[in-house]
Amino acid sequence: MKDIRMEKSSLGKYLFVLFVALLFGVVWLISSKALANGAQSAKLKVEVLRAGVVQFTSLSPTESTASSLSCFGQQRIDQYYGGDTSKYTSKLKDQAKCVQGNVTAAYYNALIGEANGSASTANFMKNDVEAFLQVLKTKSSIDGLAAAIIPGGDYLPSPYLSAKGVEIMCLKDSVASSSVPEVPIGSSQNISGPSFQHTTPALESQLNGMKKRAEELKKEMDAALADPKNIDPKTGKAKVPIGLVIKLVRMMKKNLEESKGKFIIVSPSTVSSHYPGIAAKGVYSQISFELSKDENGSLINWDEKVPKIVRGLADAIFGVTGSYFKGTVSVDGASAGDAPLPAGFMWGEMVRVANENIARLEKIKSAEEARAVSISKTLEALKARNYDCADSGPVEK
Length: 397
Description:
This protein has eleven helices and eleven strands. It has helices spanning 8-23, 32-36, 68-72, 74-81, 85-139, 201-225, 242-259, 268-274, 276-281, 308-318, 343-384; strands at residues 29-30, 43-50, 53-58, 63-67, 146-151, 154-173, 178-197, 263-266, 285-291, 325-331, 334-341.
């Protein structure tokens, strides 16, 4: 269902949710014929396998329907209903209502399963962000820190095949020359329910846009490093101009800002272990930091390397504040070494984004759990009415 590989403990919880959903009839049994011929107006044979679990099958080219009364015959009406046609048609209506009630129950069960699955997905992703936040708080610095930005999940329509307007009808087969007087027949109905997925095509497209920005900046940096005017006469090494360093920090901040409602920030190792599909497609952005130290192991403050006017602009335009330290920052291959980095600001930004990720995913999880409870109450009300089946009406096959 979701392209997520989980650790054993998480996997066990996830499978338990799915098992419970299956146990209560989430199995939305649809024959291959119904899938192949699921037009909105197609006729479907509806079979109640057990309470709240149904199977749909499309009519074959040789099958057709007629009124049950025409196939049942007056002789049997006389024999079983004392000649009272209305008693027979009333029974058919009760049976149809019963089948429709089971169809509705099956749909409710499917929605409950989808809501539980969505809550489980949101919770799984939230746990990954919480694990990264713990790393952030433990380190309390960006030194040696690496992070990955991945799709943060969104809703996609989850289609279901259902049936409406169920009637009990006579099913005829022209090849077999047979007729079955009482078969539940409904019109196919394609319904979509919301399903929270850990990634969507739209999110992946946006994240690829992030990577494209990094590629363009890397080209600028490579060109700057190849420019003789950027060579330090004291060391003979080329340095990335401060303007490009600020641009890199700005890009990192923009990437983090976009993460607030669309992406999540996790440890790089989590991408391959928990989201192999994303890892295989390379649909994630990576950020890493390394701060330089003096002979005493202390961070090297480089506030003097950043002109006051540049610091003022960085603060006013990009919100970059705090002291600058000598270090290296890399964003998807675009790297600035021996650069003055606003280390505290960067650490604070990642903490803020992680907390916002967690709050958003918790909100989705809670909403999906509430949705499952709400639908369950509606389902229980239907069960209390015996799926709208009369006492004598068949509920199970």
